[in-house]
Amino acid sequence: MEKEILNPDGLAPPRGFNHGIKVSGGDLLFLAGQDGADETETIVDPDDVVAQFEQVLENLQTVVQEAGGTMNDIVKLNVFVADRDEYVDALDDLGEVFSGYFDDYPTMALFEVSGFFKEDARIELEGMAVVDDSS
């Protein structure tokens, strides 16, 4: 699989995302929305968006690895948050967690939502990956 990151001139420089990623080869993997729940279906640290974010990334990693990929195979993430201001205030800490899972940023979008399936959730991510089709 080949991946080309695209950040064209004429667009604002990206911070915390890439404008586009062109992929050739590989299998498309759709990633269901993952919240900050552990294997017991309990939301970790109900008042801590950063702790929940780390659990979300662990959950996504589990799915991607099951498909034979790595977190760097993720090319698109949609981030859903209960409170945009809380997310923005935690950007430095979130970025530190994020850098522990990814070498490059995928394409991303952020949405503030009125609620999640689990009441204690503060954040949920869903997206797409392209994993090697060498199986």
Describe what you observe in this structure.
By secondary structure, this protein is an alpha+beta fold. The chain has a single domain, classed as 2-Layer Sandwich (60s Ribosomal Protein L30, Chain: A), CATH 3.30.1330.40. Helices cover 24% and strands 31% of the residues. It is built from three helices and six strands, in the order E-E-E-H-E-H-H-E-E. It has helices spanning 49-66, 84-89, 91-99; strands at 2-6, 20-24, 27-35, 74-81, 107-112, 123-131. The strands form two sheets. Strands 3-6-4-5 form a four-stranded mixed beta sheet. A two-stranded antiparallel ribbon has the order 1-2. Helix 1 (49-66) runs parallel beside helix 3. It is globular, with a radius of gyration of 15 Å. 22% of the residues are buried. The mean pLDDT is 95.
